[in-house]
Amino acid sequence: MRKIQLIALYFIFIFNIPLMANNDYQKMGENILADLVAIQSTEDMGLATQASKYSENKLLEYGFSQSNLQVVGLEEDKKGLIAILRGESSINPTITMAHLDVVPSVENSWDTDPYVMTEKDGFFYGRGTSDNKGGAAALITSFIRLKEENFVPKNDIIMLLTGDEETQMDGIEYFRDNFDSVKNAAFAMNSDGGYVTGTMENPEAFLLQSAEKVYMTLSLHTQNKGGHSSIPRKDNAIYDLARALKKLEDYQFPISFNDTTQQYLEFAITKLPKDDSKKLRKLLDVGENFKYLDLINENPDLNAQLRTTCVATRLSGGHANNALPVSASATINCRVLPQEEPQKIVDMIQKIVGSDIEISMVWVPEGSPPSPVTLEIMNLIGNSLKNVFPKAAIVPYMSTGATDAQALRNVGIPVYGTSGIMTDPSGFRAHGLNERIEISAFHSSLDFWYESMKQL
């Protein structure tokens, strides 16, 4: 028996035979995801560092050296993990990335406990299952699987797990600014962007996120001398602000394309009814002179792809029930197209609302230029999909939300959103109630990341 065991180990080592079957890694991924969901890594709970340390310990358990693992960051409760799968060379490494923090949950409104991963009707329910602990679990599992198989990539593969993507995004900047290996990366693959459309039975497209809008937040502020509410006047800080917000609501920023959105529209045209398809084809042909604006204005998703958007998200004003307000403020969140200058958007808003409205910057935007969709990247994704979604088209896509990717893109590192996860048939649930991920979709993402990393 001992001789047979030694022969088996010899073949495992020589021929790189996996130590575990694929379904064993699926179970491992599920367990890691469940453990991560149980860690309430919201800003208020401050347990992102605990999630990072859990991830570090899991890698240590499967043979990773402590010298290749660091839990670091600016704030004690928001530290992230940098882990390295060593390759033949440390020059031009590649990055894989995810975030471990989540938005808070209104627990009594959920059908299940958001911090206990629950299997129900073919889905895993729990906060972070889709945004973005499912991605983190896939990266960790793939690292372990490759380590178990004694896989040595040509160049180092770096895994970055951040702890504050949903808030300040300081973690990714810390990795970028303090690790030469990160600054010198050839490119990055982000599990927090890009997805597969259709259904598991009938997949349509792998949306390769190669661009994202720039996040910018402004404050509109009005002031007034105030007075007694029993003697109202025409000048009123709240009314002045309300009129300014109405002007902003009615304004539509110009239509603008970049290479990514143009390629995405080429694909979207094929999925629309015939009349709408013809109209969108004219949009691609004539650009800003497009006359069928209702087609865009009545479709929030399409509108967000083609325009900078700014929307009021918070309000405050007044100081007493029986006094005229001396001030009023509104928070405006803008998602700026990556090819546009944020300051020009601020100037435009000032022109729209008038010079009497004070505008200040709450969140200073950082540039996030689109990443080039090269043949190399297309081949990498295509080869990774062969055993998962072989018939899915690969379509460049711009995310309307912001991710950690912008901190790398703005220093010249191309980033590609490649979650590999099928969209939820009921719609987007991240940040909302009853967040979930289809179990078969999670399993397919494990296969996708494993195949991707083997090519790296």
Radius of gyration, whole Å: 24 Å
Helix content: 25-40%
Q: Kindly provide the name of the CATH class of the largest domain.
A: Alpha Beta
Output the number of helix runs: 15
Brief synopsis:
The chain is an alpha+beta fold and 456 residues long. It contains 15 helices and 18 strands.
Structural notes for this entry:
The protein has 456 residues and is an alpha+beta fold. The chain folds into 2 domains: 21-212 and 368-455, Aminopeptidase (3-Layer(aba) Sandwich); 215-363, Alpha-Beta Plaits (2-Layer Sandwich), CATH 3.30.70. The protein is 37% helix and 23% strand. It has a 6-stranded mixed sheet, with helices on both faces. Helix 4 crosses helix 15, helix 8 runs antiparallel to helix 9 (274-286) and helix 13 packs across helix 15. The longest helix is centred in the first third of the chain and has 17 residues, at 22-38. The chain is globular, with a radius of gyration of 24 Å.
